[in-house]
Amino acid sequence: MSVSTSIELDPFKLAQALSGLNFVAGAFHPAASGKTFAVNNPATGQEVARAPFSEKADVDVAVAAAKKAQKEWAKLPARNRGKLVAECGRVLSEHVEELGRLIALETGKALRTESRIEASVLADMFVFFGGLASELKGETVPFHPDMMTMTVREPVGVVGAIIPWNVPLLLMAMKAAAALVAGNAVVVKSAEEAPLTVLRVTQIMNTVLPSGLFSILAGFGPECGAPLVEHPDVKKVTFTGSVETGKIVYKAAAEKLIPVTLELGGKSPMIICADADMDKAVAGAIAGMRFTRQGQSCTASSRIFVHESIHDEFVARVREKVDAMVMGDPLDEKTDIGTIISDGQFDRVKSYIALGRETKGATEIVLSAMPTDAKLDKGFFVQPRIFTGITNNDRIAREEIFGPVCCVIKWSDFDEVIAAANDSDYGLAATIWTTNLKMAMDATRRLEAGFVQVNQNLVVQPNLSYGGVKASGLGKEASLESMLEHFTHKKTIIINMQ
After folding, report:
1. 21, 153, 247, 318: which sits with the fewest CB atoms below 10 Å from its CB?
2. Residues 189, 174: one domain?
3. b vs e for 352-376, b when ≥16 Cβ sit within 10 Å of the residue's Cβ?
4. Are residues 26 and 89 part of one domain?
5. What is the number of domains present in the chain?
């Protein structure tokens, strides 16, 4: 089938053009079974496209093509591979507006505050990793004067990448760009809620890359994800998603003894000290909680510990700022806050809001305002919430909600708040806000998280090593380290010169 690679700014038209298709072995294909499932616009509940219901037969075709393409790709000089991956980034940068609009349509993320930005970072990630190709270096080892001893880095082979729906472009790029530069082929299993934009990205990249090297399949975990992980020719799995599914992936990969990278959940703490710059802390909390993304982020600062002396002022100022945000049509430039992704996630978030209301001592603060446009009546819109008066032991403060529900907890003793921040199964991200350098450095040493920031709350960026500890996952992404350690293996070579 032929779908033009010309820039298409009408996301509804583009969604229909991509409907029912995977991109495998350099071309569009429907699922082998012909089965499809609906892709809906979360702002209206309306179906905008179909996606192929991929199964083991589709996985087999994609992996076979990837295995064949990878052998030739690995023979290319590393810098040549890097140039092609960087060229993918350059070409994708021409499609930022198109991709931003399409991702807003299928995920409900606001175009101006979320989706357009994600499309930009996507392109940057490929350019960044393309420039790291020359770093695929080995070492010489002083083992014996009569023996030339060295190490070289070699690709692992075919990589299976499973991505979620909340930031699918960014997370696909972090996995695919690193794997490709290192000399691997990649087969992606997209999230069933958001298969369209990553499909379009794959099509665009295949105008640059060799056929079969980079493929994508839409489908569900049991029917598509599991066969991908279990396939004997998949030599590495990289997964982002829930802890529960991550454990399933880990067990399946362990049966084959292949390496796995897991980026899982989070319940990230933010500590605001009495001396913090209030303006910066308020802005950082709003950004960190990802209110514009409806809180659908594993790094969301959903536990905010505020010193008791500034607690009330902080809450009041956050409320004022978020109340001023506009919730509405994700494709409208005036919109700050979009929607929840799906009806299932919508119900989950509402259940946690109900739980918060039932929590002893809790006070619910409702923020912003629901859209008034009648065409959005069936959309998955949820007003952000702050719950105060709770403890770190309450369920809404311990379980990942993945929605716009924030717990604000008072503290007075620094050692106790560090202990509370660490009292979690998760360890993905953490932030502290203070003008006291000694206190800041002390916190960065003691906080049990893989991504710690002081007086800022940046999202993941190229060249910032990203990944969690504890139940938040295994391994790092978005850095030179991730490319070398997770997508190559080291071979030792000894040449006896006697």
Report:
1. 247
2. yes
3. bbebbeebeebeebebbeebeeeeb
4. yes
5. 2
Q: With contact defined as beta carbons under 8 Å apart, do 24 and 62 qualify?
A: yes
CB 48 within 8 A of CB 41: yes
**CA–CA separation, 362 and 382 (whole Å):** 19
Residue 26: give its domain's CATH number: 3.40.605.10
Helices 196-205 + 168-181 axis angle, to 10: 30
Instruction: Mark 267-288 as b/e (b = at least 16 C-beta within 10 Å).
Output: bbbbbbbeebeeeebbbbbbbb
User: What's the CA gap between 78 and 93, in Å, rounded?
Assistant: 23
Q: What is the pLDDT of residues 113-149, one digit of tens each?
A: 999 999 999 999 999 999 999 999 999 999 999 999 9
For 265, the token pair is 């959940």
Compute the average pLDDT of residues 346-367: 98
Q: Which two tokens stand for residue 476?
A: 């790092």
* Contact (CB, 8 A) for 302 and 291: no
Q: Residue 300, Cα to own-chain centre: how many angstroms?
A: 12
291 shares a domain with 208: no
CA 39 to CA 96: how far, in whole Å?
Answer: 21
Residue among 455, 479, 457 at smallest CA distance from 467: 479
The closest alpha carbon to 389, from 423, 422, 359, belongs to: 359
> Measured between alpha carbons, how far is residue 464 from residues 130, 131, 445, 459 in Å?
16, 15, 18, 10
Quick check: pTM over 0.85?
A: yes
User: Coil, strand, or helix at residue 267?
Assistant: coil
Q: Indicate if the pLDDT at residue 2 is higher than 90.
A: no
Tokens 């070699």 identify what position? 154
- Give a yes or no: residue 1 inside a domain: no
User: Does some domain include residue 467?
Assistant: no
Query: Would you call 437 exposed, middle or buried from its count of C-beta atoms within 10 A (0-12, 13-18, 19+)?
Result: exposed
239 and 350 together in one domain? no
Select from 370, 438, 359, 373 the least CA-distant residue to 404. 370
Residues listed for the chain:
498
159 domain residue, yes or no: yes
Q: Are both 46 and 117 inside the same structural domain?
A: yes
Same domain flag for 151 and 62: yes
Kindly list the catalytic residues.
263
Q: What is the CATH number of the domain that holds 329?
A: 3.40.309.10
Residue given tokens 């802890």 in the structure block: 243
Give the pLDDT band of residue 413 (cuts 50, 70, 90): very high
Range of the domain at 304: 269-462
Contact 153, 490 (CB under 8 A): yes
